[in-house]
């Protein structure tokens, strides 16, 4: 079914790749020449949950909410679990896609992948398997899926999934021409966050304190 004249005009003015929407969503390179694409609403919600768990752990650890003084180990094991959950949720909030000059970096939960633009053989949406999220395939046979960037309620107003795909395809085309010698280099690296590291450390300390209370 063809689009009406009004729908076509609206798409030209309010579409995902128009200058108006690029300015509205600050879709453009930062000071380091990188384009950062993330689901801001999802990241905000996940970070709110993480901070909720962290605050709960602090309150329990300092007996600010109902912890029986007859069981001091509860003031350690319960915060340890909440700090652990907070750290995991914070890692989920770090998921993003960064388009650097000549390469693509997809930050996952606990690790990120660096793919040179020249190493990308194709981008496609599989019709079978785990949905139809956009995937990258390198000349070496590695595949990188973009599940986090596809499909949300926000797409009804602003097709961020389309913006990610358009920006990614344009970035690959431009980067592949400038760095043909980097074909085949594909790196998985651990993701690191100072906030998450602090929460992990708090969980370890709380577990250690709880074990000490049990053994006394």
In short:
With 216 residues, the protein is an alpha+beta fold. Helix content is 45%, strand content 16%.
Kindly describe this structure.
The chain has 216 residues and is of the alpha+beta class. The chain folds into 2 domains: 41-93 and 194-216, no CATH class; 95-192, PH-domain like, CATH 2.30.29. 45% of the residues lie in helices and 16% in strands. The chain has helices at residues 5-14, 19-24, 40-61, 74-92, 160-178, 194-215; strands at 35-37, 96-100, 103-107, 111-116, 120-124, 135-138, 143-145, 187-190. The strands form 2 sheets. It has a 5-stranded antiparallel β-sheet with strand order 1-2-3-4-8, covered by helices on one side. Strands 5-6-7 form a 3-stranded antiparallel β-sheet, with helices on one face. Helix 3 packs antiparallel against helix 4 (74-92) and helix 4 runs antiparallel to helix 6. The N and C termini lie far apart (75 Å). The mean pLDDT is 75.
Distance N terminus to C terminus? 75 Å
List how many beta strands DSSP finds.
Answer: 8
CATH class category name of the largest domain? Mainly Beta
Named CATH topology of the largest domain: PH-domain like
Q: In total, how many domains does the architecture comprise?
A: 2
Rg, Cα atoms, Å: 22 Å
């Amino acid at each position: 079914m063809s689009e009406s004249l009004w729908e076509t005009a609206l798409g030209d003015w309010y579409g995902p790749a128009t200058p108006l929407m690029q300015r509205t969503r600050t879709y453009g390179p930062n000071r380091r020449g990188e384009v950062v694409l993330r689901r801001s609403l999802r990241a905000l919600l996940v970070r709110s949950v993480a901070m909720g768990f962290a605050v709960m752990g602090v309150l329990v650890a300092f007996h600010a909410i109902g912890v029986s003084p007859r069981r001091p180990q509860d003031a350690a094991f319960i915060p340890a679990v909440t700090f652990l959950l907070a750290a995991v949720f914070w890692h989920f909030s770090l998921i993003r896609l960064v388009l650097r000059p000549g390469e693509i970096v997809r930050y996952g939960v606990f690790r990120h992948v660096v793919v040179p633009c020249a190493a990308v053989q194709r981008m496609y949406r599989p019709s079978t398997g785990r949905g139809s999220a956009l995937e990258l395939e390198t000349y070496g046979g590695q595949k990188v899926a973009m599940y986090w960037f596809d499909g949300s309620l926000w797409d009804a107003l602003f097709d961020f999934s389309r913006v990610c795909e358009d920006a990614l395809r344009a970035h690959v085309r431009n980067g592949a021409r400038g760095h043909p010698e980097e074909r085949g280099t594909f790196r998985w690296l651990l993701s690191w966050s100072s906030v998450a590291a602090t929460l992990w450390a708090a969980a370890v300390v709380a577990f250690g304190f709880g074990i000490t209370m049990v053994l006394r």
